[in-house]
Structure formats: structure tokens, C-alpha cells
Amino acid sequence: MLPSLTGLTKEELTEHLVAHGQPAYRADQILDWVWKKRPESIELMSNLPKALRQYLTENFSLYPLLAARDLGSTDTTRKMLYKLHDSRYIESVLIPANPALYGGRADRLTLCVSSQVGCAYGCKFCASGLAGFARNLSAAEIAAQVLQTEMLAKDRIDNLVFMGMGEPLANLKNLLQAIELITSPWGLNLGARHLTISTSGLVPQIKELSQHPRQIRLAISLHGATDEVRNQIMPVNKKYPTAMLFDALHEWNANKKQHLTLEYILIEGVNDQLEQARILATHARSLHAKVNLIPYNTVEGLPWKRPEITHCQAFRNVLTNAGVTATLRLEKGHDIEAACGQLRLIQETADGLIQ
After folding, report:
1. Does residue 73 share a domain with residue 52?
2. Residues 57-116: pLDDT tens digits?
3. Which of 59, 88, 104 is the last residue of a domain?
4. Where in the sequence is the domain holding 53, given as residue range(s)?
5. Same domain, yes or no, for 23 and 160?
6. Are 82 and 27 contained in the same domain?
7. What are phi and psi of 118, to 5 degrees?
8. What phi and psi, each to the nearest 5 degrees, are found at residue 105?
9. Residue that is last in its domain, among 59, 78, 101
């Protein structure tokens, strides 16, 4: 497999080119092609000498992903399936906010990005870990989801949420390099405040990320306000229980200006008791965090059910009456299995793609 040009920082590319007898300014030209002009092939980088184009073609790939499928939802959400170099697949979800009428641009486009092929953390409500973990995505494969989705959508993505397949903080090194590619002026030039990383609660990585200079947002997949409840849903809680997690989040707050978000999928009879809402409110106030409530999205093969909407609203009201900013998220992309917790490992067989 050839390394992709989408995975190199400006410094890395410059160093490589200079070591091979090229002037440093060629790096700027190449990066302009990759991230701004977006040609279909290296050969089309017309202001580069032919010998350099040939060298790049022989030693690098341009894009590390191949678009395999693009599904559209009735609510205008789109789910992109990308094929990787080793014939594995990942999914990215493009979510418009307040779609404009008559084919105009949505107010905002958010992309839900995957960080791993599969997932090893086994959250009980989520389809991504049902087939296990295959591998980490490279920085190029993470960043290229944004680049190539913009190319497919022919539009600018405004926000990124690293909430797709996988646990982002379990692939922290590649994730941080991808973030440099995404946020740098020579890359996609998307502000770090428009990036949100979601984690199931990897305490050491949360502490490490809290020292990172960019003001990235952090969302915690909490889904239980006590160890007793969270242990039923989140296996990671047995290694990093809530006391350790909340200590790490207080450390985050000491180092970051961006407010935390606590994600809470409501599952009937499991974590939707109003007492959980009261305890959650105490934690959220202590952390100055907002709460994002998500009614459970159906996953084939899992027994869970979503509560009635009136109960979801009552849970939210406990939070808001306690002074916590809480939203009850409207589902997006449920009909194409693109909603929260529905992305799953897809495999290729002689008979086609299967989940």
C-alpha cells in the first residue's frame, strides 16, 4: 500500500521533498492541489514538473478511500460507505441542520466521522462493536472522510463529530494528526472549535487530550449516572468507573475553555429512571456540562427499546428544572441505519456487501 498524500503534514511533505532534491515550495503547491483544488489524479497537478508528478504517482496514492455507496434518508441525512485499501469498509454520516427549501444550502453541515474499523469497547446499545474490532484508521483515512465527503456533496462541511465507528481516543495518535490536517490553513482550515470528539470514557486519554493546545470540544458517552447502571451498558466503566471519569473531566475543565457535553442514550427500563436524571443533573452542574439526550435507536439483534416520548420529555424536564442545559435530540437517518449507535461493520463477500 502506498502512503496517501492526505496523511502528510506540511512539515513531513516538505522534509520528504527536500530529501529527494525538490525545492521546499513544492510542498505548498502539492497541498494546494490535495486540499483545495482536489484533482482526480496526481497527473492533473499541472504546475508540477512531469518528473515530480511521476515520482509522486509511483510513491504515493492521492486519496485513501473509495466511495462505495451513498444512501440518502427521507430527512436529508446521507450515509457514505467508503472502501479502504485492505477491502474493509467504514461509514461516515452527513447531517444537514435545518435543510433549506428548493435545493438550497442547509444552515449547517455536520459530518460524523469514523476513527476505527469496528470497535473493541462493546457498548451494549451500539452496532459498531457487534462484529468486533479490526484495526485503527490512519490519519489519512480519518481526514479523507471529510475531504472526500465534501467532494461527493459538492459543499463545505461546517462541523465534525468524531462519533462514528470506533473509540476515537483509542486511536489518539492518528486522530491528533488527522486533526492537524483538518484544522491547518494549508489543509481543510476548519476551526478546532467546530470539532467534537466523543469518548466512552478513556480516562488517561482524556487527561492527555486536555493538554492539547487546540480548543477541541469533548463529548462523553455517559448513558448511566451511577456505576450500577453504567456497568450494564458501558463495559469500559469497570476499568474507569464514574469517580475516575468525573475526576478526569474536572481536570479537562481546568485546562479547557470549551464546555463538556454528556451524551445519554435513553433505554427503556435500563437507564431512564427519573432518579438517574436527578443524579445526572448533579454531575452536569458540577462539570458545567450540557446534556444531550438521545432516545435509543433500534439495532437489529439487540433487545433494547426506546422509552415513550413523554417519558423522555419528563427525564429532560428533571434536568432543565435543576438548571442544566439539556436537549432531547431528534433522530436523524434512522431509516438508513445512520443514527447514533447504528453504524456497524460491513464486510465484502463473493455475494456482495453484508453487515
Report:
1. no
2. 999 999 999 999 988 766 678 999 999 999 999 999 999 875 443 344 457 899 999 999
3. 59
4. 5-59
5. no
6. no
7. 80, -170
8. -80, 140
9. 59
- Grid cell in block for residue 157: 462541511
| DSSP code for 34 | I
Summarised one tens digit per residue, pLDDT across range 195-214 is 999 999 999 999 999 999 98
Of 91, 150, 263, 337, the catalytic one is 91
- At residue 54, what is the residue type? Q
Q: Please say if 340 is a catalytic residue.
A: yes
Q: Give me the residue label for grid cell 443524579.
A: 279
- How many domains does the chain fold into? 2
Nine cell digits for residue 186: 494549508
- What amino acid is encoded at 143 in this protein? A
Contact status, residue 254 vs residue 260, Cβ threshold 8 Å: no
Query: Which CATH number characterizes residue 70's domain?
Result: 3.20.20.70
What count of Cα atoms within 13 Å lies in the side-chain half-sphere of residue 44?
Answer: 9
Quick one: cell of 141? 483515512
Same domain, 183 and 220: yes
Question: Do residues 225 and 273 touch, judged by C-beta distance below 8 A?
Answer: no
Helix boundaries (H) for 113-163: 139-153
Does residue 91 carry a catalytic annotation? Answer: yes
Catalytic residue among 112, 123, 312, 340: 340
